[in-house]
Amino acid sequence: MKSPLITMSAVTGKPSKADIYKYLRGLKENGIEQAMLYPRSGCEIEYLSEDWFNTIGDFIACAEELNMYIWLYDDFNWPSGDAGGRVTAKEKFRLKAIVTKGEGAGEISYKSRHNSGLFGEKFFPNLLSPEAVDYFIETTHEEYYKRFGKYFGTVIKGMFTDEPSIGYCCEENSISYYDGMEKDYQKATGRDFHSDMLSCYESFYYNCTDLISKRFKSAYIEKLANWCRSHGILMTGHFMCDNDPVGAVKHGGDFLGNLSSISLPGIDEICTDVKEKSIFSLLGSIEYARKENGAMAELFALGPCSMSYAKKRLMLYLCAAFKVDHYFLAVSHMDMRGNKFITDFFNNFNTDQPDFEGIRLLAKEAKELAKLSKKDYTPNVYVRFPFEQCAKNITGSFDTKVYHDLLYELTYNQVQWKLINKESPDGIPVIEITKDGNITLDSEPYNIRKIKHEKIVTDQNGDTPYGIFVRKYDDGTFIALNLFAQADTYFVKGKPVWFDENSVITDCKSEQYQKEDINAKYDIRYHNLNMIRTVMLSPDKASIIQCDCDKNVILAIRNDDIACLDGTEIWGEYRDGILSDGMKKLYKMSGDVWIKQGNHTLSCKKDYKYLPSVFLLGDFACSVENNKLYIGNRQSSYTVGEKIYDYGKVELISKVKIPKGAAAIELCGTELYTKVYLDGALIDEKIASPYIFKISSDLWGKTVELKIVQFTNISPIFGNIKYWEENAQDIGWRGTPIPHPQHIGFDKACWCF
Q1: Which residues pair with 34 in a beta bridge?
Q2: Rounded to a whole number, what is the largest CA-CA distance in the chain?
Q3: Which 3 state secondary structure label does DSSP give 732?
Q4: Start-to-end C-alpha separation, the chain
Q5: N or C: which end of the chain has fewer CB within 10 A?
Q6: How far is the C-alpha of 129 from the C-alpha of 703, rounded, in Å?
Q7: Contact at 8 Å (CB) between 610 and 336?
């Protein structure tokens, strides 16, 4: 079984076959065995040209040699269905909308913009037109099969469709429209379309949504699913606005029913802010839609870029609890140039990350999570997805807060629930939201106290703590996940268990240790130059560098920019061996630049949030306050409890005598990928708590070299992102959680007996 971690590999620049092989080999060597090829902003090859297909051929050939799987993406960027603009270049294939009330009622147009403003003024493909969809398939799917058909079902596993929608061109007072809709309305209802529209007939929008939904299913979803099935691959992907019931119905019609028609159904980004109440609507929908092939989730694109492996692991467990067994990692840029066009969020899965080898541990655990996802549980209650209420209010308002609050309350009271759509199951209570916004339980007023359920995790008062998710399986096992509860001791089936931030508890049989502090001081060995950006948000695009002492530094200058230090232009050249593969094609390196003690001004032409104009590299310690960069000497020794803000790989080394009876070393207060060596031999590596490293009894009484190796991820190089978000004027969407600083070190080290 290959690991179910699948990178969304953004094809940027013009990669050679050697580049591709090196990139894929870097994934494979670190436990990633599947990649989706993602045509994305920053790609410099014409989409669907012969050069494009030659590049895809190179990926497939390299993947075959490396025994990896490839997934194809069915468009350029998103939304799917346009073949990079080829479909909407034909006027007859543009999605239409009809104004249903207010000024212009009855007007049909395809010239509206997307109602969120995300895409600006543009046309969208008419996914209600079988002819338009046939042309899309002919232009994309068939062209891939013509060239690479022999790999379908072997190296090539599936085709990913991204946020196809029937609602993109709808303004507030309009709905999607297709030719012949009036006739279909008459046939389905026995009523006149325009009369019902103008009279505001109560069921008009529900009837229209039902028609549009069925048309979307037959014209697009089933057509693509059948094509993929007949060509030996899976259709996967997700719809637009799938975390919001009204948005899901607006863009996907009968959302749960249509999602179930995809052979490997999926959901979009599960927000890193797990306090976001819409998360359970999203997860409940994919659990409902899961097929025999499994289910997928697109994860982590929104970051933050400092997300720890512990948080990623936690979210994989949460997905597995809702039956997800394919985890698409967004985004694995081949290089960083895509960040110039999509500037507001960044999270990367490739060897640019100093701690990338730690993903081997996550990839290994993901295989077990895929098995966990197949375990079933009996719900205490069903919750009906509010399709009818959303459909009737498709141009108005439905209080989705009621729905999100309900799922939130059930979840954090450890009530086991599942979504249902239009079916009527027997024997288990059903919660529904009425058209007037009230909640009923088997047609009676809803009260959570009426639902029989077991409390698995409680606090010291016997209450269920908010922020801890519990899934109880039919075989008697359970998992408990600390999504956002305070780190503390809680009771699991009556037994006290310590929950760290991001804890995953799968049983209560963990070993209990007596602990004794390790009193040691550590020498520090840095394995790479420190690296940090300078933030250029002042009107003159300048940043202040304050040096505590004279320092030699190197400037990495983005290819399309010029750096000026104290008014003097600094020129760059290409130098191997300093920058990572994903950066060295985009940045030129200066020679050694001597910066004397005091303040200096560094300026550029244009900075970007996640594609900085200038990085500084050198043997220095640094800190950032607003747009001011402080540089000094790195420290040479470490005392437990200190925080070292550095970048990359750092070793902490000490001589220690291992006491008799010591079974393990535990490090507390870190979230970094960490390895522990004794006398040069690796004893274990961890990416999440508990950081317990077991010791052989052969070492008792011996004095050995204890070496603790820690790795940051890429986030320290971006400096003060909070300052950027608070002061930049051209950020279109501020939905990315702000990164928290990563630091080398730990709060305590203990012998465990």
Answers
A1: 6, 69
A2: 91
A3: coil
A4: 37
A5: N
A6: 75
A7: yes
Residues counted in the chain: 753
For 452, counting Cβ atoms within 10 Å of its Cβ (0-12 exposed, 13-18 middle, 19+ buried), the class is: exposed
Residue 84 — φ and ψ, nearest 5°?
65, 30
What's the confidence (pLDDT) of residue 388?
93
State the pLDDT confidence band at 722, using cuts at 50, 70 and 90: confident
Q: Is-contact 540 550, C-beta < 8 A?
A: no
- Give the SS3 label for residue 296: strand
How many other CB atoms sit within 10 Å of the CB of residue 614? 26
Its sign, for the CA torsion 624, 627, 628, 629, is positive
Alpha helix (H) ranges present in 373-465?
387-392, 400-412
pTM: 0.96
CB distance 223 to 263 below 8 Å: no
| Distance of alpha carbon 356 from alpha carbon 712, whole angstroms | 9
In which order are the strands placed within the sheet that holds 703-711? Answer: 637-639, 521-526, 649-657, 703-711, 673-678, 681-686
SS (H, E, C) 509-530: CCCCCCEEECCCEEEEEECCCE
Q: Which two tokens stand for residue 204?
A: 């008009």
Exposure string of 397-433, with b = 16+ CB inside 10 Å and e = fewer, is ebebeebbebbbebbbbbbbbbbbbeeeeeeebbbbb
CA–CA separation, 480 vs 487, rounded Å? Answer: 13
Show the beta-strand stretches assigned E in 204-279.
234-238, 264-267
Q: Which amino acid is located at 2 in the chain?
A: K
Compute the chain's Rg from CA coordinates.
28
Candidates 41, 150, 167, 23; CA nearest to 95 is: 167
CA–CA gap between residue 334 and residue 348 (Å, rounded):
9
pLDDT value at position 233? 98
Beta strands in 689-734 (DSSP E): 691-694, 703-711
Per-residue pLDDT band for 118 (boundaries 50, 70, 90) equals: low
> Could you tell me which of 114, 55, 46, 117 has the C-alpha nearest to residue 84?
46
How is 265-291 classified by DSSP, letter by letter?
EEE----S-TT-TTHHHHHHHHHHH-B
The answer to whether 514 and 604 have CB atoms below 8 angstroms apart is no
> Which 3 state secondary structure label does DSSP give 333?
strand
Give 642-685 as a DSSP string. Answer: --B---SEEEEEEEEEPPTT--EEEEES--SEEEEEETTEEEEE
Angstrom distance (rounded) from CA 565 to CA 590: 12
Among 264, 245, 262, 263, residue whose Cα is nearest residue 253 = 245
Which tokens is 426 given? 């027997």
In this predicted model, which residue has the larger pLDDT, 256 or 341? 256
Task: Please give the DSSP secondary-structure letter assigned to residue 533.
Answer: E
Q: Which residues contact 18 (CB under 8 A, 6 or more apart)?
A: none
Edge-to-edge strands, sheet with 542-547:
568-570, 563-565, 598-603, 542-547, 628-632, 621-625
The token duo for 112 is 């509206």
609: alpha, beta or left? (left if phi > 0; alpha if psi -120 to 50): alpha
Task: Report all structural domains of the chain as residue ranges with CATH numbers, in order of start.
Answer: 5-84+129-164+212-372 (3.20.20.80), 381-505 (no CATH), 515-521+648-718+724-734+741-752 (2.60.120), 525-635 (no CATH)
H or E segment and range at residue 553 = strand 551-558
Q: Which helix (H) or strand (E) holds 664?
A: strand 664-668
> Given a cut of 60, is residue 116 above it in pLDDT?
no
> In whole angstroms, what separates CA 173 from the centre of its chain?
33
Contact 351, 580 (CB under 8 A): yes
> SS3 of 535, please?
coil
Place of tokens 């997800």: 324
Distance CA 46, CA 54 (A): 11
Q: CA-to-CA distance for 60 and 68, rounded, in angstroms?
A: 9
Q: How many CB atoms lie within 10 A of CB 662?
A: 23
Measured in whole angstroms, the distance separating CA 586 from the mean position of its chain's CA atoms is: 25
